[in-house]
Design brief:
Strand content: under 5%
Radius of gyration: 27 Å
Largest sheet: none
Length: about 150
C-alpha cells in the first residue's frame, strides 16, 4: 500500500512541476476539476434524492430509467483531476489550516478570550519593538549622514 501511495505522490509532484510552468493552463485545469467534482457531488445527491422519493411515492425504484453512473463518474473524474494536479487538499482545506494543524494551533473559535488577548498583547509588543528598532535605525542613518 505504501508503494502505491509513493508512486502517486511522485506522479503528482511531476505533474505539478510541469504544470507550474504554464500557470494559466494550470488554473484552467484546476477550475475544470473543481467544477466536475462538485457536479459529481450534486448529481449523486440528486440521484439518491430521486431514488428515495421514487420509492416513497411508488413503493419501488426503477434504476434502469435513472442515469446512476453520471454523478459518481463526474465525482471520480474530478477527484482524479484534482488529486493528480495537487489541488484537491489545497482547494478544500487550504494551506493555512494544514499549517496550523501541523503546529498544533487551535482554530480562532476554539481559543478562549484570554488566549486571544495574550496573543494580541504579544503582537502589540512585537510591533512596539519593531517601531523602536526602526526609530533607532533612523537615528543611526541621520548620524552617518551628518558625519559625511
Amino acid at each position: 500500500m505504501k508503494s502505491i501511495i509513493n508512486f502517486f505522490d511522485k506522479l503528482e509532484d511531476k505533474i505539478r512541476g510541469r504544470l507550474s510552468h504554464y500557470p494559466i493552463f494550470y488554473a484552467f485545469l484546476g477550475g475544470v476539476g473543481i467544477v466536475i467534482f462538485w457536479r459529481g457531488v450534486w448529481h449523486t445527491t440528486d440521484f439518491f434524492t430521486e431514488v428515495i422519493f421514487s420509492y416513497q411515492l411508488n413503493g419501488f425504484v426503477d434504476l434502469g430509467a435513472l442515469p446512476w453512473w453520471d454523478g459518481p463518474l463526474s465525482l471520480l473524474t474530478g477527484s482524479i483531476l484534482l488529486l493528480s494536479t495537487g489541488l484537491f487538499v489545497f482547494d478544500f482545506i487550504g494551506s493555512q489550516a494544514i499549517i496550523s494543524g501541523l503546529k498544533g494551533e487551535k482554530r480562532l473559535e476554539e481559543k478562549t478570550e484570554k488566549e486571544i488577548r495574550t496573543e494580541t498583547e504579544v503582537i502589540n509588543g512585537i510591533e512596539k519593538e519593531v517601531k523602536e528598532i526602526s526609530h533607532r535605525l533612523d537615528e543611526i542613518e541621520e548620524d552617518l549622514e551628518k558625519k559625511e
